[in-house]
Design goal:
268 residues; alpha/beta; TIM Barrel; two-stranded antiparallel sheet
Length: 268
């Protein structure tokens, strides 16, 4: 018997399912029912931690994805607000990232995404962050799973990727909400990072005074159609991920994002 999601053309985009606050299988079913072609998943999902799960449990997870016709667009490493610049948590974050890449290879994930943070006033923390990024890039090469690195400072991110000089394994994650939080326009950053972008994570927000307030995709400052047009011009073929984590009603946000992306990607 065909299921509702099989009766419509899948959207060539993924959705981050952690914010759904559902048991994992139900979250996957929901992503499929909304018409998304894939998912992004945090490795520490409260219902199913991929790093701690047995090999057989991970195989069952992959089988359920396949039954739903979903790809695993990205595994997301949980990083704190300072990313690789958190001296106290750097070793743990690096170890988690290294393990995540091994699991990503096992599961066939397209990317491992990680928030790297941005430079502080400490030269030592900057050196440590760069060394960590290099070690992770080497692991990405060994595992043949590209990294998608994000930051709210696009200039720093471009410099870091240039230093790493591994265009296939160290790529940029154009995370629009983080860029808005850093006072940057996603479309302009997309142009600046041409040749480096391996993943695009779409979330939107409006400006309220001096702060940003998350909103549904296409109803804020991101202008996703313009961002996608820039990416198409660059020949972007990495994962496109809708992220509803910051919304008060993530399921409603995911449903709206599916409709918006279906419209924007029609015929693409």
């Amino acid at each position: 018997m065909s299921t509702p999601e099989n009766k419509q053309v899948r959207i060539s985009a993924a959705v981050a399912v952690d914010p759904f606050n559902l048991p994992l299988r139900q979250a996957l079913d929901t992503a499929g029912e909304l018409g998304f072609g894939g998912i992004a998943l945090g490795v520490g999902h409260k219902d199913f931690d991929l790093l701690e799960a047995s090999a057989s449990a991970r195989r069952d997870f992959v089988k359920h994805l396949q039954r739903r016709g979903l790809s695993l667009a990205a595994l997301r490493v949980a990083a704190g607000p300072a990313g690789l610049f958190d001296a106290g948590g750097l070793d743990q974050l690096v170890q988690q990232s290294l393990r995540t890449m091994l699991v990503a290879r096992e599961l066939g994930a397209q990317r491992v995404s990680l928030f790297v943070g941005q430079p502080s006033s400490s030269a030592q923390s900057t050196d440590s962050a760069q060394q960590a990024a290099r070690a992770l890039t080497e692991q990405a090469d060994r595992c043949d799973v590209p990294l998608a690195l994000s930051s709210s400072n696009a200039i720093f991110l471009k410099q870091l990727l240039t230093q790493l000089a591994a265009p296939h394994y160290a790529t940029a994650n154009l995370d629009t909400l983080r860029l808005l939080a850093g006072g940057q326009k996603p479309r302009d950053v997309a142009e600046m990072l041409a040749g480096h972008i391996g993943q695009c994570t779409l979330a939107d927000a409006i400006l309220l005074g001096q702060r940003i307030e998350p909103t549904q995709l296409g109803q804020g400052m991101v202008q996703p159609g313009e961002v996608l047009a820039v990416l198409r011009e660059q020949g972007f073929n990495g994962p496109l991920v809708a992220d509803v984590n910051a919304l008060q009603q993530p399921l409603a946000g995911a449903r709206h994002a599916a409709e918006e992306l279906r419209r924007l990607l029609k015929g693409k």
